[in-house]
Amino acid sequence: MQQIRDYLEQTVKMTDKDWIMFSSKLYRQEFPKNTLLLEAGSTEKHLSFVEEGIIRFFIPKEENDLTFAFVFENSFVSGYDSFLTQTQSTYTIQTLTKTILWRITYEDLQRIYEQTEIGNTIGRKAGEELFLKKSKREISLLDETAEQRYLNLFTEQPHLIKNIPLKYIASYIGITPQALSRIRKRIY
To answer: Residues in domain Cyclic nucleotide-binding (predicted)?
Structure first.
């Protein structure tokens, strides 16, 4: 749990009182590899912080799922649009490795917002992080080649990317597994 406080305090100083209030609403959950955290058609009930693990966001399709995001440790994770609106998600969130999350429910986060000075700052920080990742991804898809997107992913998390099946990486960068194989041969 200290990981979360350290992460948040990179941008905002928390009083012990605010931290105790916030952390009292967090609970730790462990998930095995390939667990669905959110299924398409369900409503997101949690904002979570990844202590350990790799998570994939995808749109389920008949033949090949469309992977559009990965989340690694020391990051927030949520089906955030579903979380904010409390409506059904159009995508699925799945663990790719054993994953440990610190979670807070929608209702508890609303109480934190109301009862603490720091609550809105915490919510804003989580929301900003999720927005910036989404924005970076969109720009990458519009402005970079598949090879650049692969290299960026590899550069960001070199020790973790080896745990992601190549078919998900190919989907994420918008190419077929065969095209990814050709890129990898050129690079290595």
So the answer is: 26-112
